[in-house]
């Protein structure tokens, strides 16, 4: 995501990250500082500093789902067709985010444009869609 943030630094483009602990409990940090220390020193580590906004930890699925994610998931096709083990929320529903690093691209109009499977990670994988939305 840092590569995209650098590439689009002068564009009307923003990356927003919402940590969640609902996937194999991989985000145990509670405070913003604990989460940032995990990013800097564990994953990805090596003193990594994100060039994008990271919000407080939130629920993206289930009974404690943040309303933003209810809206986003309702507007996009889902990226998984079966559930994986290691999900820590209830109830589980079709269309839920099923792993960390799913990404949702939103247009300038505030409408979700598309949702990417968590395996889509290379900056070039997003550029055509981002460029399209920036030029609308």
UniProtKB/TrEMBL annotation:
Gene3D superfamilies: Glutaredoxin. Its main location: secreted. InterPro entries: Glutathione_peroxidase, GPX_CS, Thioredoxin-like_sf. The keyword Membrane does not apply. Keywords: Oxidoreductase, Peroxidase, Secreted, Signal. GO terms for molecular function: glutathione peroxidase activity. It catalyses: 2 glutathione + H2O2 = glutathione disulfide + 2 H2O. GO terms for biological process: response to oxidative stress. PROSITE patterns: GLUTATHIONE_PEROXID_2 (PS00763), GLUTATHIONE_PEROXID_3 (PS51355). GO terms for cellular component: extracellular region. It is found in: Secreted. The keyword Signal applies. Belongs to the glutathione peroxidase family. This is Glutathione peroxidase. It comes from Homarus americanus.
